[in-house]
Amino acid sequence: MSALTIRSLPVVALVGALSLAHAAEPEAAQPGQELFLERCGGCHLEGGFGTRVLARRVPEGQAELQKRAVLPAALITLVVRRGLGSMPQIREAELSDADLAAIAAYLEQRP
Amino acid sequence: MIAIDTARLEQALTRIEAIVGAQYVWREEEARHGYKDAMAPRDPMSYAPRGAVAPASVEEVQAIVRVAGELGVALWPISRGKNFGYGGAAPHISDVVMLDLVRMNRILEVNVDMGYAVVEPGVGFDDLHNHLVENNIPLWISAPAHTWGSVLGNALERGVGYTPYGEHASKVCGLEIVTGTGELLRTGMGALEGAKTWQLFPYGFGPSWDAAFMQSNFGVATKMGLWLMPEPEHTLNLAMAFDRPEDLPLGVEALRPLKLDGTVQANPSFGNIIRNLSVRAPRSEYYQGEGPIPAEVLEQARIKSGVGHWNFSIRLFGDKAVNRINAEKVKRAFAHLPYEFDVSEWHRGEPLKGSGSPTPTLAALGVVDWLGGPGGHLTFSPVSPFTGAEAWEQYTTIRAMYEEAGFDYYGGFTAGQRYLNHISMILFNRNDEDMMARANRLFSDLIEVAAARGWGEYRTHTLYYDQIARSYDYNNGALRRWNETVKDAVDPHGIIAPGKMGIWPRRYREVRA
Q1: CB distance B127–A21 less than 8 Å?
Q2: Chain A 19-38, residues with CB within 8 Å of chain B CB atoms
Q3: Are B214 and B103 in contact (CB under 8 A)?
Q4: Which pLDDT score, from 0 to 100, does residue B387 have?
Q5: Total number of domains in chain A
Q6: Could you give the CA distance from residue B261 to residue B37 in angstroms, rounded to a whole number?
Q7: Confidence grade of residue A28 (pLDDT, cut at 50, 70, 90)
Q8: What is the pLDDT of residue B346?
Q9: B110 interaction partners in chain A (CB closer than 8 Å)
């Protein structure tokens, strides 16, 4: 077997739209948390673009979505699908309704 | 334009549902919102599509194209739709069905010894980077300013990154294409069944077609081979900031010989002060007045923030000893300038941050909040000869036009080997009709003024395809007419992205005439 064959890695990796590996320490598993970290964490964790933009607009301590006191699932769903301010819309082909619902439910229950 | 009759649209979407499943087809309002231009310089609904479909396989793409051809329904392919400032997820005409390839997101192969990957359109820069890191594969991606977008889409739009592999289009080796009639072809060596060199030898036998599928509408790319850079042993970064705008030509002249002889293989970018300030804080932190920030205010902001009027980094990639020798050569080339380089080094095995390997980031999107938002941007990107005098003329001409129109000039010059990509952004608020009108007028004027001086754009927003295509007017637009001739031959139904890059199929030209 040639070196080419050995070291060529025919991989079929199904990958997410915005993977953010090792972004935060998982607590007890919560529905939607993992999805939130993977799909939204690139912008909406501490120091992220979304958090920084929100910090200019919301009361202190409320910019990180996971720390927002009140965050209705319906609002999350609307903002994700339609976009708001600097945030582009995320379409269903990228993020299914079921995954979005799980993320929205997780954020609604936080903190 | 050619309107899609509602009954015919429904007929097409119903047949497409049978191909991909109803859950991956969207109609009218859902499609308009999902595929609008998030940074639109005008009402995004004015050019939002009529429907959308997201196939998961090449076979599904072929079947969709055949249905579209039969019914005369135009398709607008996108990879991931993150080409912000150039149209994003949106088409440039309404009467199309989006062909959304984001679900085709497999990394099909990574070849370590030969240094390449084969990807589908839905694979993002983040995805490919994470795949390489998580599997401990010693290859690096090159990526543009934000890493949300498609590896394939960016390369085919001739996007730019900041490693020695940063001219992405030049690293493409082999494409798989669904043609306008639904046939499947492979370019280069891939045309040979069972080829062992599809991603190794870029030219093939006979005419080379990879380049013809870039910034074009001649087919739908479903696979791409892309060369990846072996992880270097060491990188060495030399960062410098110029205090004065007028130092730009000196920097350009100092860099050119180093690019030309290969000492500097990556693509350093001279970014202006607004580019730097805009990722730190909104404009209101520096100035609350109308119109462009006055020079004296900008100078105070520069001093307070500790940045330059121009900021750039020259990063060397390779063996430590060679990098250090080349660093001395770079320092000598800039020694006549009254500034010092800030030098930092990275060694293999250290954390990637600071190495020059692009890690997932969306920080660059911060620019759209410059004016307080909701922000949008239009990217005006003429190419400049790699000389200080030409760069200066382009900078002063374009900056003056920005300021005359009431905008801050945001821009930078990214170095190729013999050219500079002058990438500037008109930043506006999308809820300010007057500002958007001024942005559009300015963009249109920039195209005209640039063309009159012999400067053409390397890429543009969807809404300006036609004007820029017209500016490439040598011999009565011979190249545009050639492109149309090819278009009519390879897409006889005129259904693949009609009007992209100003290339209209015959049936649209007849309506427009």
Answers
A1: no
A2: 19-21
A3: no
A4: 98
A5: 1
A6: 41
A7: low
A8: 98
A9: 8-9, 11
pLDDT confidence of B247, banded at 50, 70, 90?
very high
Mean pLDDT of chain B: 96
Which CATH code of 3.30.360.10, 3.40.50.300, 3.40.50.800, 3.40.462.10 fits the domain covering B234-465? 3.40.462.10
- Classify residue A22: in a domain, yes or no: no
Q: What is the DSSP letter of B98?
A: E
Q: How far is A69 from chain B (nearest CA, A)?
A: 24
Domain extent at residue A72: 30-109
Residue at token pair 């958007």: B436
Q: Within chain B, which residue ranges are assigned CATH 3.30.43.10?
A: 6-100
Architecture per CATH, B472-512: Orthogonal Bundle (1.10)
Name the average pLDDT for chain A: 81
Angle between helices B388-404 and B248-260 (to 10 degrees): 140
Residue whose C-alpha is closest to residue A108's, from A31, A37, A49? A31
Dist. CA B458–CA B479, nearest whole Å: 15
Choosing among B29, B45, B104, B131, which should be mutated to test the A contact, i.e. which has the most A CBs within 10 A?
Answer: B131
**How far, in Å, are A62, A65, B486 from residue A70 at the CA level?**
9, 9, 57
- Report the CATH fold assignment for B6-100: 3.30.43
Ranges of CATH 1.10.45.10 domains, chain B: 472-512
Determine, for residues B369 and A11 on separate chains, whether the beta-carbon distance falls below 8 Å.
no
**B458 tagged catalytic:** yes
pLDDT at A18 over 50: no
Report the percentage of chain A scoring pLDDT > 70. Answer: 74
| Domain contains A92 | yes
Q: In B, which residues are within 8 Å of A83 by CB distance?
A: 36, 38
Lowest mean pLDDT: which of A29-38, B238-247, B282-291, B347-356?
A: A29-38
| pLDDT, tens digit (0-9, with 9 covering 90-100), for B154-194 | 999 999 999 999 999 999 999 999 999 999 999 999 999 99
A74 touches chain B (CB under 8 A): no
Q: Is A94 on the interface with B (CB under 8 A)?
A: yes
Q: Measured between alpha carbons, how far is residue B47 from residues A87, A91, B95, B281 in Å? A: 19, 17, 8, 32
What fold characterizes domain B107-230?
Answer: 3.30.465
B465 is catalytic: no
pLDDT for A43 beyond 70: yes
The answer as to whether A87 is a domain residue is yes
Residue A70 sits in a domain whose CATH number is: 1.10.760.10
